[in-house]
Amino acid sequence: MILLADSGSTKCDWIILNPDHSIREEAFTMGFNPYFHSESFIATAIKQNKELMTVKDQVSHIYYYGAGCSSPELNVIVKRGLSHHFQEAEITVDHDLLGAAYALYQGEPCICGILGTGSNSCFFDGTQIHEKVPALGYILGDEGSGSYFGKKLLAGYLYHQLPEEISQDFKLKYEPTIRDVVDNVYVKPHANVYLASFVRFISNHLEHPYIKELLVSGMSDYLRTHVMCYENYQHVKLNLVGSVAYYFQDAIREAGKEFGIEVGHIVKKPIDRLVEYHKKYVLTDTEAS
Length: 289
Description:
The protein has helices at about 40-45, 50-55, 70-85, 95-105, 135-140, 145-160, 165-175, 180-185, 190-195, 200-205, 210-225, 245, 250-260, 270-280, 285-289, and strands at about 1-5, 10-15, 25-30, 60-65, 90-95, 110-115, 120-125, 130, 240, 265. With about 290 residues, the protein is an alpha/beta fold. A hairpin with a 4-residue loop joins β7 (about 120-125) and β8 (about 130).
């Protein structure tokens, strides 16, 4: 059996493939990021998933694409965490950016973007990904991401800059105090996930002019930083993966028009496309045996 995994910082989608490469079932765990999660943490979380534990001794290969998996030193943290349970499997760990490129590839080069809890981009020529700027995370970067918009919304609320009706609804739903926010952002772990959790609130107010302006402005920041860095950005399509890209696609398309950027297809969950890519380009008859 073969496992495919696409992991952001919030959640991880798994597909279990039978030996003939047909889909056996899906599985879901929290997302793992080696910047924040240790080998033992990952192993413990995996152990809690019934679907994965049921097939652990039958898995021959794992293809894992994850947030934060951007260097051999970081990748080995995830690999060791997985190897606690999948002891017979050959484990390939790579960046979620490569997984996004595979999921978005439709036979022609494109700029591939991630807009989820965090944000990133690359140019994919059909064989290799090429990066121009790094992903700096939720403190220095992540423009246009869930954590970015959550940070803007929280700051607007605490600075008393939100429109009255937005501010009152936010207070009613969350009742946040400065102490609560500071504790979640600066003391507790996974501040990026906490910030991104407010995307749901934003999505419930999409028709409000303040929210529309917030989204278009944030998407413009993303395009200026992560897309316009490529010399050919006006000559190839920008394809995107991630829930933020999917739910706020009107804003990214509007921002794209301003810069002459053609936004192509947007995929909410790349895992299904990853299955098709691997069947076509990666998996071999040997792995089916």
